[in-house]
C-alpha cells in the first residue's frame, strides 16, 4: 500500500492510502484510509510543495515555513524528539531559513534554502545526512561540506542524498552505495558529499552545449540516482491560487457577461480560501521569509492598493466581500504557525466600507478572533503592535465605527421596546472586545493613537436611557467591561452610578442574583494585610470589576455588606499602625506615603 497527496488550487491538502504512522496527517489512527481526507491542520497555510518519505511527510509554504508529520523514530520530523505525529507540526528550528524545497528519504529529510544552503535531519546510519558521521539528527543541521556552494536542487533516496551545484555544474552524492546508487566504486557508505563521476561535470556537459535551452535535473529513487539533461521546461505543476496584479487589472477592466463569470470564479477561488489569502499580498524582496510571531510578512500597503482599485468597480468589490463573508465562519481557531495570522490582518482592510455588509463581516471577523486560544490571541496582539501607525489607527477606527453602529441599533431597539435593555448580543460584545484589546495594545506601545479614537459617543445616550427606564446598574455593568469606549466625563458618571448601585446590601444581593460574578475574598484575621496583598497581586485585571464577597476564615456568615465594611475598616486601622511601616509620619503630625516603592510585605 502507498500514500497519496493532492493539493487543490484553493490550497487544501487531501491525503489517502497507507497511514501506519500517521503519515497522512489527518489525526486518525486508522492504518488505511481509502478515501481522500482534508488535512485540517494545514487549513490556511499557503502550500508551495509536499514531500513524502518512507512513512513521514513534509510540506513547505510560500514563505518558507516547514511542517512535518508521520513516523519519527530517527528524528526525521525535525522536532527535537522521536515521537510520531498524526497531524502536521511546525518545525520552529527552520523559522527564517527561507526554505524553498524539501525532500524526504526513507527515514531522513533534506531541506534547501533560497540561499542554496542544505540542512538534513533524521536517520544518519548510512551517512545520508552528509555530516561525516553515522549519527541520527533530531533537529535540522547544515551540511557543512556544502557551505559556500550554492545548491539549487536536492533529492533524497531511501538511504542516500543528491544535490546539484549549478555554478560548478556538479552533482554531489552521499549516503549508502550498497546498490551502486552513488555512481562510483569506493565504499558502502559515503559520509560527506562528493561529486559524481559522470558526463555532467566533464566536457560533455549539456549546459555547455546549450545553456539557454537545456538544464540538469536530479531525481532519487529508492536505490537509484538519476541525472537528467533536459529542455528548460517547468516540470512542476502550478501552485495554489494567489492574487496577481494582472488578474486585478482584468477584474477592473470593462468586461462582458462571459468574462464576468470567469472573473467571479477567480475571485471565489482566492477569497473563499484562507490559504490563498495568506499567500497573497506578501512582502517583496524575500522579507516574507522572515515571518514570525513578531512579523507577519504581509504588505498592508498592497492590501490598501488592491482595495482602492476594486472600490472603483463596486460589482467586483461586492463579489470579493461576499466570498469573504462566506469564509469568515470557517477561519481556523487553532493556528499552526505565524502564517495563519495573516488573514486576520488582511481582511479588515478589505472591509472598510460604511455599509451593512462590511459591518456584518467585521462582526463575524471579531467573533472569529475571540475564538482564538489565549496564546494565539497574544500572537495576534503582538502583530497588531508592530503595525505601522497609520494601519493600526485605521484598524481602531474600523472597530470604533462598527461599535457605534451596534450601539446605535441597541438604542433604537430599546426605545421601541424591541430589545431587552439588559442584554448585548454576542456580535456586539465581540466588536467591543476587539476595541478594548486594541486599546490595551496601544497603551503598551506608547499610545500611538489618541484615546478619543476609541470613544463611542453612543454610550452617553445609553447612560441617559438607562436612567429613564431605571435599569442603570444592569445595562452599565455590561458596558463597563470595555472602559476604552468611555471618555473621562462618562467614566465619572459610571463610577458614581456603580457606587450608588452597590451602596446597599440589597443592591449587591440583587446584582448577584442577576448573574453578576463575585470575587470571593477569604482572609484570616491574624494575617489580614498579608492575605489582602496576596489576593490583589494574584488577581487579573477583570477581577476588579466583580462584586467583592468577603469571608473571615473560621467564622460563620455570608457577606451581605457587613464583612466587606469590616475588612476595609480593620485593614485601614492596621495599615496605619507604625509597626507596618506602610506610611511615614511627618513632624507636623501628618501621615504620608513613602517616596520609595514599598515591597508590599506589611504586617
Automatic annotation (TrEMBL):
GO terms for biological process: protein ubiquitination; ubiquitin-dependent protein catabolic process. RCC repeats lie at residues 11-63, 64-115, 116-167, 169-231. SUPFAM superfamilies: Hect, E3 ligase catalytic domain (SSF56204), RCC1/BLIP-II (SSF50985). The keyword Manganese does not apply. One of its GO terms (molecular function) is ubiquitin protein ligase activity. Residues 540-583 form the HECT domain. This is HECT domain-containing protein. It comes from Accipiter nisus (Eurasian sparrowhawk). The lineage of its organism: Eukaryota, Metazoa, Chordata, Craniata, Vertebrata.
Amino acid at each position: 500500500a502507498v500514500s497519496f497527496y493532492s493539493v487543490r488550487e484553493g490550497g487544501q491538502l487531501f491525503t489517502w492510502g497507507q497511514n501506519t504512522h500517521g503519515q497522512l496527517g489527518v489525526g486518525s489512527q486508522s492504518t488505511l484510509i481509502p478515501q481522500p481526507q482534508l488535512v485540517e491542520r494545514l487549513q490556511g497555510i499557503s502550500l508551495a510543495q509536499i514531500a513524502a518519505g518512507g512513512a513521514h511527510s513534509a510540506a513547505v509554504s510560500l514563505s518558507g515555513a516547514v511542517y512535518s508529520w508521520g513516523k519519527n523514530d530517527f528524528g526525521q520530523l525535525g522536532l527535537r524528539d522521536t515521537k510520531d505525529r498524526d497531524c502536521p507540526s511546525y518545525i520552529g528550528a527552520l523559522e527564517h531559513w527561507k526554505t524553498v524545497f524539501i525532500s524526504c528519504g526513507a527515514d531522513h529529510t533534506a531541506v534547501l534554502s533560497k540561499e542554496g544552503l542544505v540542512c538534513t535531519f533524521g536517520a544518519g546510519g548510512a551517512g545520508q545526512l552528509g555530516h561525516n558521521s553515522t549519527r541520527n539528527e533530531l533537529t535540522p543541521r547544515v551540511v557543512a561540506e556544502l557551505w559556500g556552494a550554492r545548491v539549487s536542487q536536492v533529492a533524497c533516496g531511501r538511504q542516500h542524498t543528491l544535490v546539484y551545484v549549478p555554478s560548478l555544474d556538479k552533482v554531489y552524492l552521499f549516503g549508502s552505495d550498497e546498490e551502486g546508487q552513488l555512481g562510483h566504486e569506493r565504499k558502502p557508505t559515503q559520509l560527506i558529499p562528493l561529486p559524481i563521476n559522470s558526463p555532467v561535470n566533464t566536457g560533455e556537459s549539456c549546459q555547455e552545449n546549450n545553456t539557454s535551452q537545456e538544464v540538469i535535473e536530479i531525481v532519487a529513487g529508492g536505490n537509484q540516482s538519476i541525472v537528467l539533461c533536459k529542455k528548460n521546461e517547468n516540470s512542476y505543476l502550478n501552485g495554489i491560487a494567489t492574487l496577481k496584479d494582472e488578474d486585478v487589472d482584468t477584474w477592473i477592466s470593462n468586461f462582458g457577461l462571459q468574462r464576468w463569470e470567469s472573473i467571479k470564479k477567480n475571485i471565489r477561488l482566492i477569497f473563499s480560501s484562507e490559504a490563498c489569502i495568506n499567500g497573497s499580498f506578501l512582502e517583496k524582496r524575500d522579507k516574507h521569509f522572515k515571518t514570525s510571531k513578531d512579523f507577519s510578512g504581509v504588505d498592508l500597503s498592497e492590501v490598501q492598493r488592491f482595495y482602492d482599485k476594486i472600490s472603483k468597480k463596486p460589482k467586483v468589490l461586492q463579489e470579493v466581500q461576499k466570498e469573504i463573508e462566506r469564509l469568515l465562519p470557517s477561519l481556523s481557531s487553532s493556528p499552526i504557525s505565524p502564517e495563519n495570522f495573516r488573514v486576520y490582518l488582511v481582511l479588515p482592510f478589505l472591509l472598510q466600507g460604511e455599509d451593512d455588509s462590511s459591518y456584518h463581516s467585521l462582526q463575524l471577523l471579531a467573533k472569529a478572533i475571540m475564538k482564538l486560544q489565549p496564546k494565539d490571541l497574544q500572537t495576534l496582539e503582538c502583530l497588531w503592535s508592530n503595525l505601522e501607525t497609520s494601519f493600526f489607527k485605521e484598524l481602531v477606527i474600523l472597530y470604533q465605527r462598527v461599535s457605534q453602529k451596534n450601539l446605535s441599533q441597541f438604542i433604537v431597539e430599546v426605545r421601541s421596546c424591541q430589545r431587552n435593555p439588559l442584554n448585548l448580543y454576542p456580535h456586539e460584545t465581540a466588536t467591543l472586545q476587539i476595541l478594548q484589546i486594541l486599546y490595551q495594545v496601544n497603551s503598551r506601545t506608547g499610545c500611538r493613537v489618541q484615546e478619543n479614537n476609541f470613544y463611542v459617543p453612543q454610550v452617553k445616550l445609553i447612560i441617559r436611557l438607562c436612567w429613564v427606564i431605571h435599569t442603570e446598574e444592569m445595562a452599565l455593568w455590561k458596558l463597563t467591561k470595555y472602559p476604552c469606549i468611555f471618555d473621562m466625563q462618562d467614566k465619572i458618571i459610571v463610577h458614581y452610578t456603580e457606587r450608588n448601585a452597590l451602596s446597599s446590601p440589597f443592591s449587591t444581593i440583587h446584582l448577584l442574583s442577576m448573574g453578576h460574578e463575585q470575587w470571593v475574598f477569604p482572609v484570616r484575621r491574624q494575617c489580614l494585610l498579608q492575605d489582602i496583598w496576596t489576593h490583589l497581586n494574584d488577581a487579573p485585571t477583570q477581577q476588579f470589576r466583580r462584586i467583592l464577597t468577603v469571608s473571615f476564615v473560621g467564622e460563620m456568615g455570608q457577606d451581605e455588606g457587613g464583612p466587606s465594611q469590616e475588612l476595609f475598616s480593620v485593614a485601614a486601622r492596621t495599615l496605619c499602625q507604625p509597626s507596618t511601616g506602610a506610611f511615614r509620619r511627618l513632624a507636623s503630625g501628618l501621615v504620608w506615603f513613602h517616596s520609595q516603592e514599598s515591597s508590599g510585605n506589611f504586617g
